[in-house]
């Protein structure tokens, strides 16, 4: 690209503390959204005894899932046999099926919001069920978290294809003729990512990309080099 246009790529634009540089104490994007549930998420994750045992589920701040899809997701999570942390916005809570709260008791935690980077970086988290918005995809890729992709619109299907077919860091859940991911499909895909030979390969790839992300922003990495070259080029233009 640089041979055609004077463009310098940088990234991933993830706070440095999550990329293996804790000494930088950089843990936010420049703002910090805190709610009373922030502490409960961390406390619940800390209480999990096994590493990489929790399924984190979030569809971002814009996706509006239908009631049928919400019900299938709920029962698929319950049937997965895995602990789960599910972010369900207040506007979506009415779509949860009757009896789900009782079924989920002891298995999962449903919250209206949580600090996603902190959750993805937590050692208890082993799978991310995501709509594959670019920010969520980049965060999971950079933090080495395997994904089950459930894309909804815009760039999300493309991102999901990269997750499954290019990076090898997850799988895409299939939909039926009504465009709904059914409970058995979700259960199967979660287990595929977290268990067996396929899961082991996905986890291996996820850690590879986590390492590459850290190298990119480290001293001498592509981001470090490109920023320095950009500054030099810009300084040369302004001084001339």
UniProtKB/TrEMBL annotation:
GO MF terms, alphabetically ordered: quercetin 3-O-glucosyltransferase activity; quercetin 7-O-glucosyltransferase activity
Similarity comment: Belongs to the UDP-glycosyltransferase family.
Record-linked Pfam families: UDPGT
UniProt cross-references to InterPro entries, sorted A to Z: UDP_glucos_trans, UDP_glycos_trans_CS
Protein name stated in the entry: UDP-glycosyltransferases domain-containing protein
Signal peptide interval: none
CDD domains: GT1_Gtf-like
Domain of life: Eukaryota
Coiled coil: none
Keyword Glycosyltransferase assigned: yes
Keyword set, alphabetical order: Glycosyltransferase, Transferase
């Amino acid at each position: 690209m640089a041979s055609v246009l004077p463009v310098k790529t940088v990234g991933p634009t993830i706070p440095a503390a999550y990329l293996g540089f804790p000494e930088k104490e950089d843990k936010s994007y420049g703002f910090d959204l805190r709610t009373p549930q922030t502490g409960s998420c961390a406390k619940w994750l800390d209480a999990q005894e096994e590493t990489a045992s929790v399924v984190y589920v979030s569809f971002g701040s814009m996706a509006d899932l239908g009631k049928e899809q919400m019900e299938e997701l709920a029962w698929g999570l319950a049937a997965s046999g895995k602990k789960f942390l599910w972010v369900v916005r207040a506007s979506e809570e009415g779509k949860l099926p009757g009896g789900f709260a009782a079924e989920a008791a002891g298995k999962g935690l449903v919250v209206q919001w949580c600090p996603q980077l902190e959750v993805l970086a937590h050692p208890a988290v082993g799978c991310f069920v995501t709509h594959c918005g670019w920010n969520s995809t980049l965060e999971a890729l950079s933090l080495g978290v395997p994904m089950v992709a459930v894309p909804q619109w815009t760039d999300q299907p493309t991102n999901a294809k990269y997750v499954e077919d290019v990076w090898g860091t997850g799988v895409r859940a299939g939909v039926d003729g009504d465009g709904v991911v059914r409970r058995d499909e979700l259960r199967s895909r979660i287990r595929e990512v977290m268990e067996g030979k396929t899961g082991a390969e996905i986890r291996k790839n996820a850690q590879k990309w986590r390492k590459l992300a850290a190298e990119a922003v480290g001293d001498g990495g592509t981001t470090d080099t490109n920023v320095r070259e950009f500054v030099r080029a810009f300084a040369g233009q302004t001084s001339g």
